[in-house]
Write a sequence for this structure.
């Protein structure tokens, strides 16, 4: 279409009510078309990010003195048109600066100087030094005889501010030129960032010259400014804090003048150009602003944390005494490149990244270009971590610039070529959006406009030279590109670290093998990422990915994701070994790898489980179907993982009842129990069950297994000579089984008609012994040990008694501790009517109508004290022993049981076998203050959870919490403490909670202080 036909201001994007009037006043519009000679101006205006904003700025500029000259130049100077109109439509701040200093329009014109090489650091420094009246040819400020400004105070700040904005205007207009005219050169975002860093250096040199003129420091004082962060890496934003560290020589009495000089530099630069941030110095904002070189070295040798060495990766001298700055870098560089050997290296880096994400307000996380997932910081952290791992032995990687370092990592094979190129492209795209957002008002921001702010999104898209694609307008294309790049950054993180490891152990072809690590480099990377045995890990990777099978191919695709998840677990070594064993055991299960590949939640959850628990992989190899329960369509809950215990019990007994022999029935029951233990363990570790729900679920399964096996044995008997009931005792009777609990029981029988007691007892004993052997015999499935040692006379007494025998025994020989043991007695299997008769028999014994005597109370206390003294294992730590330690399970349980013996005869609600139930009823009856009940409950829950976690982590029962190391970290993670955090926090919490519970025990159980 001819440009002069069918064109209107609205068609060109000018929607302001006075657009046509303004255009005519400028002489750019006549009748219904652009004025002669103004067509190109109109189309350049149409391409501006915000046409109306640009036009208003032009109208304001036209009221200044040189407008006729500017107008004439715009009609003939293509470069000026593109640069000026794009800048005015992209940045209100730079538009205001140009209008305040209209002669600066020449900075945008196509003058002969523009065809020279772009301004370098020397030219920019000279310009800013001249602006404050300093000699650019003098020695650098901060050195002996260094340049000092001719201007000071507010006058110097104003001059520096204007000169800095002039430089910024020239750079931004060149950056935006291709927005206004696609034929003009495009500046790469990394070139813009490097020139911004140069400009910051120049501004700091000028600020130092001003500060030196004002402070008049001693001639012998030398001050160097070390650039950190983006300035140090020559990748600065348009608006950013400039991170610095100050080093001065000599120290002593010159330390104070050096600190005053540095503080004034920060203030001058802050008022004129940008904020100067010195919080990356040793000890942060609480540390000395200035230190000598030796002072810095002492700090980094003794106290520096891993992240501080990571920050030093970008350090370089940017102002002041260059010789001193170079000495600083040379002295600290060896420490930086040894940081990856520190024990806490990965944990520190991961924790730092996690803290950054956690500190983003929830409503902003999806719009954060810099700090959110898939944002700029993800790229920077990934690159820096790889640099620190491999830069120790490869000095080609030692660049403070993200893109330069990424290119080196790719060239040297540490990162795949395609991966490196894609990551660099995403990084440049995100940086471009960041630059454009900051240019608008020259404010520091990394936040995309809200999804419903289409005007702001359209402006951003146009300023970034995004065009509609035929299916979507510019807003749709922008949002799609942002999301695509964020996803790509997130996924490439996994490949960056782990794909080259697979190439190191596998024969990969084509582009899969474009990044190949040497075995030593692969071991270094694995060690840095948290593997204590890199060589073993490489062996597992070889075993998983070796060969040309379909399974090996799927493993190669899966492992980058899985290894990334494992690296965040408490024990990556054990997790990877477990994953290999599970994969080998399930090699013939057709859906196993497909499920991991297609269900991201399953893979993520499985790695969390394997990297935390030794019990889960042992159970999983023979119960793989539980993996399907790890899938979830929404949220974190999986209904299959949190089934109702009653429903599970019915299903188990129904399944077992179909078996034709007791052996088959017991095998079926034990297999079902394995499945259920695994399901409960997964739900527990994934935080889907409370501790009392875990205990209830485990107890219900154990009851069902015992009952179903007993039923099967009884069905196989040709003649039933007695009726048998199984009475649960201890935690089994209380419904509080843990993962490693035995089933404590007693047996009661009544003879069948015409059968004498002796024959009935003998027959019943043979039956229950067969049940015990079936449930405790060697088998691939976990045993359920059935323990009858709490029966009268213990191991010396008969295994089974009749009701009459129990009645006679308790009447003649029963002791107070046996009454206490009966508090948890509850029928769990066999004949229910007989179980109820037994309960009626023992109720007067365990719930005495008048309570118990003072001597009985003293006896119970004496027994408890002896148990505490004699049964605690040698070398155990009483403060962290979950069963016999202070405030542990025994303390709380004995306290509740004493209250029951004393008061359950009168308070019927206390007649419960549950510890927590007894606590609640004691508090409800006024026998225990509410606060004391809460302390005891928290102690019981904490100790029970910790005991369960020990079994989950170690794969075997245990009562003593680990003192340190990976097992302690795994126990803490199993209890919901953050992975990678300090497990000492868990120990502190455990000791605090159990100490408070113990204080209640001493008052209530022992009577101290009452």
């Amino acid at each position: 279409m001819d440009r002069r036909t069918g064109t209107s201001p609205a068609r060109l994007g000018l929607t302001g009510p006075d657009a046509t009037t303004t255009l005519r006043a400028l002489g750019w519009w006549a009748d219904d078309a652009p004025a002669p000679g103004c067509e190109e101006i109109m189309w350049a205006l149409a391409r501006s990010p915000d046409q109306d904003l640009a036009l208003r700025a032009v109208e304001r500029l036209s009221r200044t003195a040189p407008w006729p000259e500017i107008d004439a130049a715009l009609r003939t100077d293509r470069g000026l048109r593109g640069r000026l109109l794009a800048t005015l439509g992209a940045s209100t701040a730079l538009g205001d600066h140009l209008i305040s200093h209209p002669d600066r329009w020449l900075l945008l014109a196509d003058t002969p100087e523009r065809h020279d090489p772009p301004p370098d650091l020397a030219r920019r420094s000279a310009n800013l030094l001249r602006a404050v009246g300093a000699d650019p040819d003098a020695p650098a400020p901060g050195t002996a005889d260094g340049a000092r400004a001719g201007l000071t105070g507010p006058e110097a700040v104003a001059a520096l501010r204007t000169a800095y904005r002039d430089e910024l205007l020239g750079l931004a207009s060149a950056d935006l030129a291709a927005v206004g005219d696609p034929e003009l050169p495009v500046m790469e975002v990394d070139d813009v960032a490097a020139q911004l860093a140069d400009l910051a250096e120049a501004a700091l040199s000028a600020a130092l010259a001003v500060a030196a003129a004002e402070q008049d420091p001693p001639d012998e004082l030398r001050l160097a400014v070390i650039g950190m962060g983006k300035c140090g890496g020559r990748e600065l934003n348009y608006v950013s804090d400039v991170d610095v560290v100050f080093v001065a020589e000599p120290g002593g009495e010159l330390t104070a003048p050096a600190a005053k000089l540095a503080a004034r530099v920060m203030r001058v630069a802050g008022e004129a150009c940008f904020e100067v941030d010195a919080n990356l110095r040793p000890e942060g904002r609480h540390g000395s602003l200035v230190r000598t070189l030796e002072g810095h070295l002492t700090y980094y040798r003794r106290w520096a944390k891993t992240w501080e060495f990571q920050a030093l990766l970008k350090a370089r001298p940017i102002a002041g005494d260059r010789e001193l700055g170079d000495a600083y870098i040379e002295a600290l560089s060896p420490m930086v490149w040894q940081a990856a050997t520190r024990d806490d290296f990965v944990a520190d880096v991961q924790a730092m990244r996690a803290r950054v994400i956690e500190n983003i307000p929830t409503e902003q996380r999806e719009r954060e270009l810099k700090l959110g997932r898939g944002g700029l910081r993800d790229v920077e952290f990934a690159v820096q971590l790889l640099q620190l791992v491999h830069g120790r032995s490869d000095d080609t990687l030692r660049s403070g610039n993200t893109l330069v370092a990424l290119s080196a990592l790719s060239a040297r094979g540490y990162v795949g070529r395609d991966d490196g190129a894609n990551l660099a492209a995403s990084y440049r795209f995100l940086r471009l959006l960041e630059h454009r957002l900051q240019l608008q008002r020259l404010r520091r921001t990394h936040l995309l406009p809200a999804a419903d702010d289409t005007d702001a999104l359209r402006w951003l898209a146009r300023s970034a030279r995004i065009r509609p694609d035929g299916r979507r307008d510019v807003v749709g294309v922008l949002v799609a590109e942002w999301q695509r790049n964020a996803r790509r950054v997130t996924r490439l993180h996994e490949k960056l670290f782990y794909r080259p490891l697979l190439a190191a152990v596998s024969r990969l072809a084509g582009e899969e093998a474009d990044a190949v690590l040497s075995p030593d480099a692969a071991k270094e990377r694995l060690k840095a990422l948290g593997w204590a045995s890199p060589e073993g890990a490489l062996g597992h990777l070889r075993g998983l990915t070796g060969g040309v099978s379909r399974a090996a191919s799927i493993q190669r695709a899966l492992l980058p994701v899985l290894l990334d998840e494992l690296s965040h677990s408490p024990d990556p070594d054990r997790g990877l070994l477990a994953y290999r064993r599970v994969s080998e055991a399930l090699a013939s299960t057709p859906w196993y790898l497909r499920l991991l590949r297609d269900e991201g939640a399953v893979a993520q959850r499985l790695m969390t489980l394997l990297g935390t628990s030794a019990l889960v992989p042992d159970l999983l190899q023979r119960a793989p179907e539980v993996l399907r329960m790890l899938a979830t369509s929404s949220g974190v809950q999986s209904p299959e993982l949190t089934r109702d215990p009653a429903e599970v019990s019915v299903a188990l007994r129904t399944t077992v009842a179909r078996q034709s022999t007791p052996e088959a029935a017991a095998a079926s029951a034990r297999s079902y129990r394995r499945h259920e233990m695994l399901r409960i363990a997964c739900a527990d570790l994934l935080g889907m069950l409370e501790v009392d729900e875990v205990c209830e679920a485990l107890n219900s399964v154990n009851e069902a297994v015992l009952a179903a096996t007993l039923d099967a044995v009884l069905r196989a008997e040709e003649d039933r000579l007695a009726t048998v009931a199984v009475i649960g005792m201890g935690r089994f009777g209380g419904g509080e089984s843990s993962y490693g609990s035995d089933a404590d029981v007693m047996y009661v029988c009544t003879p069948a008609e015409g059968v004498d007691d002796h024959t009935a007892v003998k027959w019943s004993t043979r039956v229950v012994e067969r049940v015990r052997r079936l449930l405790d015999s060697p088998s691939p499935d976990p045993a359920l040990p059935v323990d009858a040692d709490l029966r009268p006379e213990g191991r010396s007494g008969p295994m089974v008694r009749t009701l009459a025998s129990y009645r006679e025994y308790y009447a003649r020989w029963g002791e107070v501790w046996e009454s206490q043991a009966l508090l948890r007695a509850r029928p769990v299997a066999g004949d229910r009517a007989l179980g109820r008769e037994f309960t009626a028999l023992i109720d007067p014994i365990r719930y005495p109508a008048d309570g118990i005597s003072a001597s009985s109370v003293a006896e119970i206390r004496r027994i408890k004290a002896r148990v505490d003294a004699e049964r605690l294992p040698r070398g155990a730590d009483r403060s962290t022993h979950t069963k016999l330690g202070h405030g542990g399970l025994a303390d709380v349980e004995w306290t509740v049981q004493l209250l029951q013996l004393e008061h359950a005869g009168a308070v019927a609600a206390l007649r419960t076998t549950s510890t927590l139930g007894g606590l609640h009823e004691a508090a409800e009856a006024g026998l225990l203050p509410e606060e004391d009940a809460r302390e005891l409950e928290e102690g019981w829950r904490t100790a029970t959870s910790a005991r369960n976690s020990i079994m989950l982590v170690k794969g075997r029962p245990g009562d003593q919490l680990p003192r340190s190391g990976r097992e302690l970290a795994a126990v803490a993670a199993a209890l919901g403490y953050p992975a990678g955090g300090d497990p000492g926090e868990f120990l502190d919490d455990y000791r605090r909670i159990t100490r408070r519970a113990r204080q209640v025990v001493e008052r209530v159980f022992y009577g101290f202080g009452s």
Q: What stands out?
A: Residues 1-5, 507-513 have pLDDT under 50 and may be disordered. Residues 847-1010 form a domain with the Four Helix Bundle (Hemerythrin (Met), subunit A) fold (CATH 1.20.120.330). The radius of gyration is 38 Å. The longest strand covers residues 743-751.
